[in-house]
Specification:
With 241 residues, this protein is mainly β. Helices cover 8% and strands 41% of the residues. It is built from three helices and 17 strands. The strands form four sheets. Strands 1, 2, 4, 7, 8, 9, 16 and 17 form an eight-stranded antiparallel beta sheet that branches. A five-stranded antiparallel beta sheet has the order 3-10-15-14-13. The protein is globular and about 55 Å long. The two termini are 26 Å apart. The relative contact order is 0.26.
């Protein structure tokens, strides 16, 4: 029996096109904002790192929120992270970034206009036959407004994938502030300014990625309904048709 998703979560034609084109080198994702003659081109897909998710529960959120710094400083409970309602098989997965370039001139200087089009977590190798928005555990599909895409928000334009079972330990380096200033953190530095935190006691990881003001989470489903990939997009076309 083939998977049939809920129409209220399904990606519309424009979003479906973007999700597939974003990871296709050479694809055009529109044009430079003030120059309709210059295309924005997908230049490549980079494997950033791998991430361990032993609990099968996944957080896709910002690693910290500026409006909760006072809670971090006082050691008070913060709001729970945005954990996805869907679970994945416990395992180790690739994190990949799709890059685009849209050259432009800025005060007479040539700028390549390199940006992240999307970030994805590769769960399986079976083909994706459909896309749907990824709800969080505390989001009710019956309260989802038509045309509205649930998302996470980020004050610092940083998002992350993380094992939900080890969230408290994994997020701690990003939530240590002194007098409102982030304390130095000893994390593994990855390419493109990304970071990884490891919790060896639970064999779990957190990996950060760029996310302009946050992002929408998309689940790529296989014919059987399994989640083959989880993609985070920012600044993409509308979520619904």
């Amino acid at each position: 029996m083939e998977w049939v998703g809920d129409a209220r979560l399904a990606a519309g034609p424009e979003a479906t096109w973007y999700l597939e084109a974003a990871f296709t080198p050479g694809a055009h994702l529109g044009t430079v904002y003030d120059d309709p003659t210059t295309p924005v081109v997908v230049t490549g897909v980079e494997e950033l790192t791998t991430i361990r998710v032993p609990s099968g529960r996944l957080v896709v959120d910002a690693p910290w929120h500026d409006d909760e710094v006072w809670r971090y400083q006082k050691g008070l409970p913060a709001r729970p992270p945005r954990e996805l309602a869907v679970s994945i098989p416990p395992g180790v997965y690739r994190v990949e970034i799709a890059w685009t370039a849209g050259p432009y001139e800025f005060f007479g200087e040539h700028v390549e206009g390199v940006e992240c089009a999307a970030t994805r977590l590769c769960i399986g190798d079976d083909p994706v036959v459909g896309w749907e928005m990824g709800l969080a555990v505390d989001e009710d599909i019956d309260r989802l407004q038509a045309g509205h895409a649930p998302r996470f928000f980020s004050d610092a334009n940083v998002g992350c994938f993380a094992d939900a079972g080890a969230w408290t330990t994994l997020s701690a380096p990003f939530r240590t502030f002194v007098d409102g200033i982030p304390a130095p953190r000893d994390t593994e530095q990855l390419a493109d300014g990304c970071e990884r935190v490891r919790d060896e006691s639970q064999q779990a990881d957190l990996v950060t990625f760029g996310a302009a003001s946050g992002g929408v989470v998309w689940l790529g489903r296989t014919k059987a309904g399994d989640v083959a990939t989880i993609v985070v997009t920012t600044g993409m076309p509308g979520a619904k048709a």
